[in-house]
Amino acid sequence: MNEFDYLTAMLLGAIQGLTEFLPISSSGHLALTQRWLNLDPDSTHMLLFDVLAHLGTLIAVVIVFVTPARRFANRLIRESSRSWSARRFGWRIAVLAVAATIPTAVIGLAFKQNLEAAFDKPVWIGICLLITGGLLAVLAKLRRGRRGWKEFHWWEAALVGAAQALAILPGISRSGSTICVASYFGWRRRWAAEFSFLIAVPAIVGGTLLKIRDTLDLPGEEFAAVALGPVIVGSILSLVVGVFALKILLHTVRRAKLHYFALYCWVAGALALAVT
User: Which residues contact 37 (CB under 8 A, 6 or more apart)?
Assistant: First the structure.
């Protein structure tokens, strides 16, 4: 196995930050990179890096969406002091977020081991990248949606959450699949993107907690041998790159150019299949 040095950590951190938000699948890219660099994904270094890198991408979401999140929280608080009939916008978004999070959690926990088994099979990663490219290409053919928050149904949000759960498969993009499904239902692209990252927060938090649990099960002497410097540097880089990647994605979605990433996914998928 190769050593987890600063260069490796920075490479993985940049890939994590960039691919976590762009619709090209962070899990697929990380799995392929770890394989090509001959890294052990179950090593203490990698487990600890995964935890901190996911925390970095979570912070990136908070940084980019701090203004709309504050506006939503303030509105939710104001509506909580009124009669139930007056609780419309803020509470409606909260209900939609819960409706999307439930299937993500149920499917993710029930089939986690089965879905993650694909991490050891580059051929499946390649196929999933091709599927992601297909989803993005379909998105280009969809009529731009006009539906706003008040017109969203709970079952639509649940299906968006189910699409997010399937992104546990390496090669299936979380942002690409959720935005594509929401757009299929006629949601405005801007709202589809913001909702995608709203429900990403509990998903990332849940995934991070599971990784923390797995990390804490390791013997203490393995932690003592971890080179914290590269792990921390790589995680910070994932945060910085993640902020820029998220802004790029939002800019791309608003201009209906998300399908441009389809060609990249097809090329990456074809390469993954070619080298297996």
Answer: 2, 8, 11
Nearby residues of 223 by Cβ (< 8 Å), 6 or more positions away: 44, 48
Number of domains in the chain: 1
pLDDT confidence bin for 86, thresholds 50/70/90: very low
pLDDT digits (tens, 9 = 90+) for 168-195: 888 999 999 999 999 999 988 888 888 8
Identify the domain containing residue 86 by its residue range: 6-274
Q: Is residue 112 included in any domain, yes or no? A: yes
Q: How would DSSP label each residue in 33-61?
A: HHHHTT--TTSHHHHHHHHHHHHHHHHHH
Burial class (CB in 10 A: 0-12, 13-18, 19+), 84: exposed
Domain membership flag for residue 1: no
Rounded to the nearest 5 percent, the helix, strand and coil shares of the chain are 80, 0, 20
Which has the higher per-residue pLDDT, 59 or 41?
Answer: 59
Residue 129 lies in a domain: yes
